[in-house]
Amino acid sequence: MRQKLLVATRNTGKISEFADMFADFKLEWIGLGDLEIDLKIAETGATFQENAIIKATGYAAASGFLTLADDSGLEVDALNGRPGVNTARYGGLGLTPVQRYELLLENLESVPMAERSARFRCVIALASGEGVLGTAAGICEGWIAQEPAGTGGFGYDPIFLLPDRMKTMAELPAVEKHLISHRGQAIAEIAPLLRQVLAEQSDSE
Fold first, then answer.
1. How far apart, in whole angstroms, are the C-alpha atoms of residue 36 and residue 34?
2. 195, 46, 63, 203: which is closest to 134 by C-alpha?
3. What is the DSSP letter of 161?
């Protein structure tokens, strides 16, 4: 029987990325939408790491499942690092992902390409009901494109330009994206710990 692992998100795109990048792990992937838990944990941390730990420990305690949580976002230098930890809420509640990146492009309309440097940042936390077991981080440097391109990925991927490829993140095949993305880097770093914890759980059953 496959071991269950909770990804502390309702974002199905994010869950799919975790499942793809952990393809060699024989796991049953569960998202918050799969649980009958009416719990909304406020992301009150000032950093990505603080928010990842808050979510991982909170949902692990509530569900009883080993839990992975990530907090990730986009930092734009011309906007003094915004949207940062507020990336998923940029522009306020109720906006679609497309409306959020369109707002970002509007706010950068007068900024020349040479000054549109940015990065995706991700921190992943792994937790059990007893607390946080470890964290890992990843960063992907790039630029904000002047217009969206590509249909892959999710969120801000269509406007995040990778200068060495001259493509946006949304134009990359999933396999290539996973190798270089902020989330892919963090997953690679935390994978040995997850493998160890799963093995220990399996041995104790």
1. 7
2. 195
3. E
Q: Look at phi and psi of residue 195 and say left if phi exceeds 0, alpha if psi is from -120 to 50, else beta.
A: alpha
Q: How do beta strands 117-128 and 67-76 pair?
A: antiparallel
Q: What is the mean pLDDT of each run of 10 residues along the chain (205 residues)?
A: 84 82 84 82 91 96 93 96 94 93 97 97 95 97 97 93 94 91 92 90 68
The catalytic position among 71, 77, 164, 203 is: 71
Name the residue range of residue 149's domain. 3-204
Distance CA 117, CA 154 (A): 20
What is the crossing angle of helices 182-204 and 12-21, to 10°?
70
- Active site annotation includes 77: no
Q: How far is CA 46 from CA 54, 58, 68, in A?
A: 11, 17, 19
**CATH code where residue 70 lies:** 3.90.950.10
Q: What confidence tens digit (pLDDT) does each residue in 133-180 have? A: 999 999 999 999 999 999 988 899 999 999 999 999 999 998 899 889
The DSSP letter of residue 170 is G
How many angstroms separate the CA atoms of 138 and 120, rounded?
8
- Asked if 104 and 90 count as a contact pair (C-beta separation under 8 A), the reply is yes
